[in-house]
Design a protein that fits this description.
The chain is mainly beta. The protein has one domain (15-185). The protein has one helix at residues 17-31, and strands at 35-37, 63-66, 72-76, 79-80, 88-94, 99-105, 111-114, 118-123, 130-133, 142-146, 151-162, 165-176, 182-185. The strands form 5 sheets. Strands 7, 8, 11 and 12 form a 4-stranded antiparallel sheet that branches. The longest helix has 15 residues, at 17-31.
C-alpha cells in the first residue's frame, strides 16, 4: 500500500504498510516473544494506541530507502524470535475496517505483565499550518495530510514470567517528534478579465438644459427672367 509523503517525513513511499507492522508487533509483544528488531515512527500516530492491545508509544514501522539508481541504501525492519522450541502459525485476516493477527503454537505457560507507559520530554507542536502546492489537485481544493501532535518520549516495560521465574524483562523506549498541520492545496483559480463599463452622462438637478439651435431662414428663390411691361389698350 502506498501513500503521500511530505518533505517532513522523507522521500520514501508511505502508507498502510506500517499498520501491518504495528498490528503484528502488538500480537508478538503480548505473546511474550523476544523482539529482535523494532523501530518506532518519526511522529506518533494516535490510532496505534487504541485499546485493548494498543498503548501510547507501542508501534512499529518498516521502510526501505533506494537511491536514484534503484539501489537499496538502507532499511528498517521488524523481527522477533520464536523461543517456544516449537512451530508457530501466524494467521492474518482483514475486512474493510480491521486487521487482525493470531499466533498459534505450543502452550508455554508464560504470563506477560506490562506497565503503563511513562511519558516525558513533551515538546508542544506548532499550530501554524503548513501548505504545500500540488498541481495535480483540483483548483482551489485543500486536503489535510498530517495532523499536529506533540512530541514526547514513551517508556513501556514488559515482563515475561513462568511461575516465579522472570524469563525476560525489557523496556521499550520510543521518542517522537512534534508534528504540524500540513495541507496539500490545489492551484489558485485564475481571475478572468472583465470589460470596463461605458459611462453614460446623466442630467443632474439644477443643470440648465442646452438651448435649441435656431432654424435656418427660408431659402429665397431668384426670378427666372425680366418681367415685360404691359402696353395699355387705347380707349375709343
Amino acid at each position: 500500500m502506498s501513500g503521500r509523503r511530505s518533505p517532513f517525513c522523507g522521500p520514501s513511499v508511505g502508507g498502510g504498510i506500517c499498520q501491518v507492522a504495528t498490528t503484528l508487533f502488538h500480537s508478538v509483544f503480548w505473546a511474550g516473544l523476544p523482539i529482535v528488531e523494532r523501530h518506532w515512527h518519526l511522529y506518533w500516530i494516535p490510532r496505534y494506541g487504541q485499546e485493548p492491545k494498543g498503548m501510547q508509544g507501542l508501534d512499529a514501522t518498516i521502510d526501505q530507502v533506494f537511491d536514484k539508481d534503484g539501489k537499496l541504501t538502507s532499511a528498517v525492519d521488524f523481527r522477533f524470535k520464536n523461543s517456544t522450541e516449537s512451530y508457530l502459525l501466524i494467521q492474518a485476516r482483514t475486512d474493510k475496517k480491521n486487521l487482525t493477527f493470531q499466533i498459534y503454537g505450543k502452550k508455554t505457560g508464560w504470563e506477560v505483565k506490562v506497565d503503563k507507559p511513562r511519558i516525558d520530554n513533551v515538546v508542544k507542536s506548532d499550530p501554524t499550518p503548513v501548505k504545500q502546492l500540488d498541481p495535480k489537485m483540483p483548483i482551489g481544493s485543500e486536503m489535510l495530510i498530517e495532523s499536529a501532535q506533540d512530541g514526547f518520549r514513551a517508556q513501556i516495560t514488559r515482563r515475561v514470567t513462568a511461575g516465579n521465574a522472570v524469563i525476560e524483562q525489557e523496556t521499550f523506549t520510543s521518542t517522537y517528534r512534534p508534528s504540524r498541520n500540513v495541507y496539500l492545496v490545489g492551484p489558485r483559480p485564475t481571475a478572468s478579465p472583465t470589460a470596463s463599463p461605458t459611462r453614460t452622462p446623466t442630467a443632474t438637478a439644477g443643470s440648465p438644459s442646452p438651448a435649441a439651435s435656431p432654424s435656418p431662414p427660408p431659402e429665397l428663390i431668384a426670378p427666372t427672367g425680366t418681367p415685360k411691361p404691359v402696353t395699355p389698350t387705347p380707349s375709343r
